[in-house]
Amino acid sequence: MEDKELYEILMSMDSKLNHMEDTFMDYRDILIKIVNQGNTVVKFLSNFELDSVDTVVDSEMVSGKLKDVAEIINDYSLRFEELQEFEKELEKHKDEITTGQIGES
To answer: N or C: which end of the chain has fewer CB within 10 A?
Structure first.
């Protein structure tokens, strides 16, 4: 390599390093601004007081939902009882059941 080519390569590397240094300084400035903004938000929120909020509950809506839940529970209970009866019936006829055989029920 000639001295002139080496000099050009070094100058190119120097300009790239300078550009990277400038970019990192820009990023540093942005990060400082973000941290300061975050600190400002934290200070604001620490001074923020929340009064208790009274919610008004519609009793008709609650009673309607409770009725729906009660119906679902009753339906589940009935199905569970029917399933237990069916399992008992299957247990009685367990020796007569052949797996894989299709026939009349």
So the answer is: C
Of residues 6 and 68, the one with the higher pLDDT is: 6
For residues 23-36, give the mean pLDDT. Answer: 91
Assess whether pLDDT exceeds 70 at residue 53. no
Contacts of 28 (CB under 8 A, 6+ apart): none
Say which amino acid occupies 51: D
CA distance 20 to 11: 14
Task: List helix spans (H) across the chain.
Answer: 3-47, 59-92
* List of residues 6+ apart from 90 with CB closer than 8 A: 97
